[in-house]
Amino acid sequence: MNALWTSAAMAEAMRAAKRGTLPNDVTGISIDSRTLMPGEAYFAIKGDVHDGHDFVEAALKNGASLAVVDKIHADKFTAAARLLIVDDVLAGLVDLAHASRARLGAKVIAVTGSVGKTSTKEALRTVLGAQGATHASVASFNNHWGVPLSLARCPASVKFAIFEIGMNHPGEITPLVKMVRPHVAIITTVEPVHLEFFSGIEAIADAKAEIFAGLEPGGAAVLNRDNPQFARLSRSAKTAKVKRIVSFGSDEKADARLIDVSLHPTCSAVQAHILGHDVTYKVGMPGRHMAMNSLAVLAAASLAGADLALSALALAHLKPAAGRGVREVLTMTEGSATLIDESYNANPASMKAAITVLGQASVGPRGRRIAVLGDMLELGAAGPDLHRGLSEAVTANNIDAVFCCGPLMRNLWEALPSAKKGGYADSSATLEEQVTAAIGAGDAIMVKGSLGSRMKLIVTALQKRFPGQAALDDITV
Question: 334: closest CA among 207, 439, 414, 470?
Fold first, then answer.
C-alpha cells in the first residue's frame, strides 16, 4: 500500500516529539484500535466515554505504525514504544489536517445543510469517482474530529475531495470550513433542525452560511433556490465576497433546474437543465428530494471540472448508505415484505421525505404501507407541534398504519385517524414486539427516528424474525 504520510512529515506538521524507532511510511490514520489496519497511525483521541490513551498498547500490538499521544500520558509507555508526542492529540490531528490541505492539488467540495448532507456527499463520491481518484468523508464524519480526520486521511494525489460539514450550534462550521477551504460549497437546504439550540430558522440559515467563510478565492456556492432561506443565504454569500452563486431547484430562475421527474419505488427519471445544458438521467435512489439534490450534485461536479454527461450517467449507480433508505426483502412463510431502513437519524424534513418514499413503495395484493416512527430530537419547544404535523404527510401519502414510540411521537399518535393507528409504546424496545407481530406478506415497512430513539432495534428485530436479502432495483428508465 502506498504511504499516506511519512512519520517525519507527520512529526513536522504536528510539531511532535519522537520516541522509539519510527517507520518511514504511514499508510493511514485511525482513532479506533478495534478497526485499525496494520501500518496506520493511531491517534489517542479523548472521547466522551473513552480515552484513546487506554488503547495505545493494543493498537501498537495490532500493527499500528505509530501512536500519537499527549505529553501527560507519554510516560505511561516504554522508551521503545513508537510514539509521536504532542500537547493535545485532537489539536495535533487538526494540525495534520491543515498540512494535508496545504499539499492537496485536488478540487475540493464541501457539503452542509439541514438534510441530505451525507446522501449528497455520497452522490458526489459516485459521480466524481468515475472520473478520477476521489476522496470523501466516510459515514457522517462531519464534526470537530470527523472533519480533520477525513482531511488528514486524504491522499495528496487525488483529483477530487469531498467533505461533509455538520453543526448543531452556531460557530461550529467556521473553523471546519477554514480547514477544508473548498472550491465549491453546497448548502442542500435549511430546515427546522436542532431548533433547541437556535432562536429560529433564520439563525439556522446564518449558521449554515458560515461555510462561505472558508471558500477559496474565486470559489462557488451552490444554493437551493426553492428553499425559503435562499435570499438570506445569497445575501450572506455576497457579503462573504463569494464570486459565483449557483442555484438549484424547480424555480424557473434556477441555474440547475428540474424540468420533470418521474418517481418510481426504487429510483427516479429526471429531466433537468444544468448550467446551460439539457440532461436526462436516472437517479438510483427514490424520492423527489433525491432528484432535487442530484441537481446540486451535477452543478457542483461541473464547477469542479467534471464532465456533465458522465456525471449524470453515474447517478444511476447511487445506493443508499446504511440506515438511510436501504431496502431489504423480509422472507415470511406466506410470502415476503419490504423493509426500508431509515433508522440512522430523523428531523421533520427527512421524516416527511421518508414517508413520501414509503407512499410510493410497491406492495402486494393485500399489502399495507406501514410507518414505524420514533421521536425526532433537539427540536426544543416546537417539538410537539412538529411531531403532530406529520399526520398530514401520513394522510397525503396514503400510509395505512403508523406505529409510534417515544413521548414526542405520542403527539402524532393522538393526531392520527383511528384507522391508521397501528400501535404505540414509550420506547423502541417495547414497540418491537407489536411491529414484528403486525406485519405480513406484501407489506412495505419503513422505520425511522432520531439516533437517540434507537429505532435500529426494530430493524434488527425484523431482520432476525424474517431473514431476507437485499432488494433489487429492476426498473430501467
Answer: 439
